[in-house]
Predict the 3D structure of the following.
Amino acid sequence: MKRAVLALPLLALFATQVHADAPMCASTSEAEILALFNQWNDSLQSGDPRQVDALYAPDAVLLPTVSAVPRLDSAARIDYFEHFLNDQPKGRLDTRHVRIACDSALLSGLYTFDFARTGAQVAARYSFAYTWTGERWLISAHHSSALPAS
């Protein structure tokens, strides 16, 4: 009995230490991740490439729909969005798949862009990878490519 009484405080100390060392992950939901897409889509409506870029992590990778050049920093992303926003794009999710992990999330599927200035429509595949910074979610990688003809 004495051994059990002595072991209890040690067990409690160990359990506290294990809990303290466990990583704390940001909690999120599919609805919150979808809201991040809506925030990005709304930023396109602003016409301000800097407002769009503010949703990306500083070292985020953008592999855009209508450019063959990977955009690896803020200046390159702003350059891309300066041209992309000229046609007044608005996206809509046609399909979506959300995967949530510790401090990260992935939104992928198919979307369509309607371009108000030209009347054009582009269907594309997309992937948005989001990372929790400790304060907010930012896009850490974004891939978009036009759907093949068949």
